[in-house]
Predict the structure.
Amino acid sequence: MKKVLMIIGVLAFASCSTVFSENEYGVTVTSSPESAKFHIYNSDNIKVHTGRTPARVQLESSEGYFQKAKYTVKFEKEGYEPTTTQLKGKLGGSYFANILLGGAGIIFGGLIIDPATGNMWYLPKFVSGNLTEIKEVSK
């Protein structure tokens, strides 16, 4: 009975990122000055969100098997130079628990489940754009 419980326990935690993480994150988008229009594009340059700052958007942390998400955020406001910033997924700490578990953790969690679900990645909680005011040139 002990062996069965041990095997169930190892398999249950074989994908630590899937248990302790998610694959979609709320990201707060801000700008200086506020009330700038923003557009978020994925790595295929497809627009996935448009809004005005400040705003909170839901974005996926993965683009596929073993691929972290990469977004371009473009900010614009009348009277200001447009600006662009990048938002990229990062490897989550819970993914390394698969390695610590060894055996089933590495095989099931580290190579199959977490990369397939995208739960091995996380996104930063905030992204911001600083717009520069356009100065009129006097003649």
